[in-house]
Amino acid sequence: MNSKVTNDLTDLRYLRFGYSRRSSGTAGTLLKAQQDINGLRLYYKASSYDPVNGFVGHESVNELISDRLFNLLGIKHVSYDLINALIVVDNKEYNTYLCVSQNFRKRRESKMAFDLFYENMRNEGEDVLSFCSRFGFIQDIYQMIVADYLIINRDRHGANIEVLYDPESKSYRLAPIFDNGFSLLFSCRNDDDITHFDPLKDYRVQCFFGSESLKKNIDLIPVENLPVLNKLKKEDKEILFDGLSSIITRKHISKIWETISERYSIYESICIERRS
């Protein structure tokens, strides 16, 4: 089911937004809030906030686009909706768009940031990918590597990956992919930035389990483990950007589609070349 865009204004002035790294599914540095409704926990995340200029980024929109892309390609991830909300930050009211997700933990499960889990559970001298293989996470990590390459995710630090533990079965699983806002054209603030944005540049990134190069991280995946994705088609553009034409510009949409489709084509070529 496609993630939704709600343009009708939702009054969330009663929520307290702040910077937190402790909320499951919302680790990072953007303004966040959470609430429980009839036993369901919801997480809200805003785009980049500037105390002088207000909300200036597109990170929340990127979460929605990434959600839709991963749905199309068959990549496991946390689902996000986008809502138009009235909130209060620093005693001032703002009308902005927020992305909303639900708690992805099952009943009884506890969670831990991946960097802490690795620090506590690794064997002496064990590298991250070997560690992931030992715990059965490796194919999920490979899929995450490809997902981050496609959307140019610059911020896959150790708290943007989580491990979930079920005490009843004494088993661990990797959380579905979340926190994809620092991706695509998040740093572009105007049309000139968008015009000069290079979709194929190998941007320097933060990646806990790989290198600072998204392209080199693809090379970490053995040929037999390269994730097989669903086919991305031209008509998928309409699905990706449904309801967004009044939120980001046509030029912005065009550049994001160019970025995703070109990087997808390169990944397809890499798979064909390495498997031949």
Alpha carbon gyration radius = 19 Å
Order of helices and strands: EEEEEEHEEEHHHEEEHEHHH
The neighbouring-strand order within the major sheet is 1-7-8-4-3-2
CATH topology of the largest domain: Phosphatidylinositol 3-kinase Catalytic Subunit, Chain A, Domain 5
Would you write up a description of this structure?
This protein is of the alpha+beta class and 276 residues long. The chain has two domains: 5-102, Phosphorylase Kinase, domain 1; 110-275, Phosphatidylinositol 3-kinase Catalytic Subunit, Chain A, Domain 5. Helix content is 31%, strand content 23%. The protein is built from eight helices and 13 strands. The protein has helices spanning 59-73, 114-121, 128-134, 138-151, 191-195, 214-218, 236-240, 250-275; strands at residues 5-11, 18-19, 31-37, 40-45, 49-50, 54-55, 81-89, 92-102, 110-113, 155-156, 162-166, 171-174, 206-207. It has a six-stranded mixed beta sheet with strand order 1-7-8-4-3-2. A hairpin with a 2-residue loop joins strand 3 and strand 4. The model is unreliable at 21-28 (pLDDT under 50).
